[in-house]
Amino acid sequence: MHHELRRNERALTEMEARAILERGEYGILSTCGSDGQPYGIPLSYCIENDAIYFHCAVEGHKLNNIAADTRVSFCVVGKTEVLPDQFATRYESVVISGRATEVYNEEKQRALEGLLAKYSREFLSSGLDYIKAKWALTKVFKVSIEDQCGKARR
């Protein structure tokens, strides 16, 4: 579902928003449980083929929520600077809406390698061994980007 920005002059182009996503260290995944209770959790992610990928354990709160409703929101905050004398903040952020689905086999491997390349590039060889060792204990999800909205005050 797309929401119009209240402050349109702060809207980012698709390319600017993508750059924030690519250099982001972490994002906040927001889900909703079967009881309607919202839940947001920070996590590591990578971008592959215009989708967000994240890994997790084989059970847990976010997995229960995704099983109840695959619709999710994912937010990445880029550079920020508090401007105390102006009672304001410089910021840049991107919010994505989409659906989370578990991926398997080759797609799971590519996503895990994408995470490895993003966070541990200098340990590629031992990282591949780690992926192999933890394969059965790891789930990987893809968030297909249905809507993307970037905003900044610079």
Task: Summarize the entry for a quick read.
With 154 residues, the protein is of the alpha+beta class. The chain has helices at residues 14-23, 61-68, 105-119, 124-134, and strands spanning 27-32, 38-43, 46-48, 51-56, 71-83, 88-103, 139-153.
Helix and strand arrangement:
Blueprint: H1 14-23, E1 27-32, E2 38-43, E3 46-48, E4 51-56, H2 61-68, E5 71-83, E6 88-103, H3 105-119, H4 124-134, E7 139-153
Antiparallel strand pairs: 1-2, 1-5, 3-4, 4-7, 5-6, 6-7
Helix pairs in contact: 3-4
What does this structure look like?
The protein has 154 residues and is of the alpha+beta class. It has one domain (8-149): Pnp Oxidase, Chain A (Roll). It is built from 4 helices and 7 strands. The protein has a 7-stranded antiparallel sheet with strand order 2-1-5-6-7-4-3. A hairpin with a 5-residue loop joins strand 1 (27-32) and strand 2. The two termini are 27 Å apart. 20% of the residues are buried.
